[in-house]
Write a structure and sequence with these properties.
heterodimer; A: 1% strand; disordered N terminus; B: alpha/beta; Rossmann fold; four-stranded antiparallel sheet; 30% helix; globular
Amino acid sequence: MTVPVDIPPQADPDPAPVAGETAIQGRSLGQIAWRRLRRDKVAMGGAIVLVFLMLVAIFAPLIVGLLGTPPNDPQRSLIDRATGTMLPKGEYGGMSLDHLMGVEPGNGRDIFSRIVYGSRISLLIAFFATLLSVTIGTTMGVIAGYVGGWVDAFISRLMDIFLAFPLLVFAIALAGVMPDKAFGLEGDTLRIVMLIFIIGFFNWPYIGRIVRGQTLSIREREFVDAAVSLGARSPRILVKEILPNLVAPILVYSTLLIPTNILFEAALSFLGVGIQPPTATWGGMLSDAAQYTSHLWFMFWPGMAIFITVLAFNLFGDGLRDALDPRAR
Amino acid sequence: MSTEPLLTVTGLTKHFPIRKGLLQRQVGAVQAVDDVTFDVAKGETLAIVGESGCGKTTTGRMITRLLEPTAGTILFDGRDITHLSTGQLRPLRRDVQMIFQDPYNSLNPRHTVGTIVGAPYRIQGIKTEHGIKRAVQDTLELVGLNPEHYNRYPHEFSGGQRQRIGIARSLALKPKLIVADEPVSALDVSIQAQVINLLEDLQSELGLTYVVIAHDLSVVRHMSDRVGVMYLGNLVEIGDRMSVYTTPRHPYTKALLSAVPIPDTARRQNRERIRLVGDVPSPIDPPAGCRFHTRCWKATEVCKSEVPKLVEFAPGHRAACHHPEVPGEQAEVAPDGTAISPFASPDLIEP
């Protein structure tokens, strides 16, 4: 978290150090929160897992190149075709040094590399959908809370309408009629963009309400009056006085919204309306594995991937909230 | 002290509408301030006193134009500022500044001291000779803070230090008038004296004019040149400090002054103590006539029907009462000091 300190560079020369006296440097609320967060082992555990997951997603081609086979290559030689079960040869879903998590039944694709590539889709969609929600939600919430009156009434009713919207049904319907090409995009790219848009666009009222409520209370604080009595314009008051005080709740809510969006994307892919096969997604892998209910190995890996990611985000988000606002415990 | 008024307030009124129902129809109004008239000369300190909810803060906020007056006029330096728009007010903001009551609420916790005290320069777009930082540090020094604390955050300071930061912010633009809303009431008693002395030093150094809003009469006595007493939205008495403290003309002022604690037990013995009974009536539906008549031991029929006008008793000393106090007069109160109005609600008269 950064605290905006808008000092023009030329006006901020380092104070000449006085001999025998260390420069007095204040500790911002962000720095204090960071120290508090560092002491929270559970939250830091979550953070480490998240950093690891992000690295995995970023370096997916590298990791798969070293440790697996390409995620979409069928390897029929690993499948037991003789008995007709179409299950992988060998124990535990075909686990071996070559295939760390085994291979998929039916076509023999490497589960490890599909999990690794699936993390890209999950994190990408969840992250940008959250970003979209937070951007819309914060803007609308701040305006509703600060301007008040009929603007507030209008935005609040709009939020109610969005919250009442059956998002899953809408997503399924939209995905069903979606063309292969639109807006100059096609295939997976188009699907990803659409998912980000659908998930992000319909989730903003949650954060919008939180921001509106916080804005209402901050607006009544005397430092806002002080800014008014100095002649500050409304945009300055919103951006410089109110928004910095909203950073904490927005940040916390974002880290708690990301796992929800991961689950939502997985659910859509599971239902077959998300990213289309053969592209690897965790939800799609669960859906494929559901055909083999007596062999839980195939469900275990994508399930664990979703579980660990969501848990890590939630633990980190909880820790972040405690660190930023110790009174809220 | 010059006698030329810097600020003239005439018939200042603020009614907060009460709206109800789907259509937000106005069903009434909180008459927070009603027909308040006074002026403040350059370089003097006017204190406005009264109990909670009497409209003194609202008055202060109207002078700084944080609130829009319902009626009346505010003249500042000969210019009518009553209904100036936000844009027209901006240049004026340099001349009229406010010190806020709660130093824990009036400083943005996310900004450093440098940002807070530097904000006036940035908002008003003022260029300073050696940069904003230098100007801020000079101001910090002026209010007795360490200029090295430039990069610190408000939560690292004590209440008194925070109030000094607030004072530094209001001084940054070299204003002519400062409205101080309960500048010391949120502070420890030991710190109050320091801040009051600071305000007085700054006044003589910079030639400031103060409107101090307070409920602590000891503070007022120490700081003010003139005192205005408010009751339920009305200014009931105004005059020189000495004149008001020694010869109060309005019964409410007399009762208020009799409540000031006296540390000397010997002097406490023989002073008159007046205990008002009952609550302050609601400003939504204030009593007709003199608003004090429901609690005034001297009230008669005329008080119930006619609003008293401010009458001059001594040069500059005015009070609004049908039965003003005569110096030396003893209030007709019970031995324990209880004073009951003949118009008080019956359950108060017969306990």
